[in-house]
Fold this protein.
Amino acid sequence: MDKIFCKNLRETRKVCGFTQKEVATKLNVVESCYANWEQGRTEPNIEMLRKLGVIFNVTIDDLING
């Protein structure tokens, strides 16, 4: 998993004021699933990337490349 993506995902979530649990709930996934994305253990599929962009009001490119 790309470390830049993990860092951007974590920082974007914090700037938006969400907990991992809150984001997971919005995505309808378990908290550990979302936490694994931030930790680089797994990665979200394109559908989840789109949803993350909507939740955080950023582009997918912002999440991937910063």
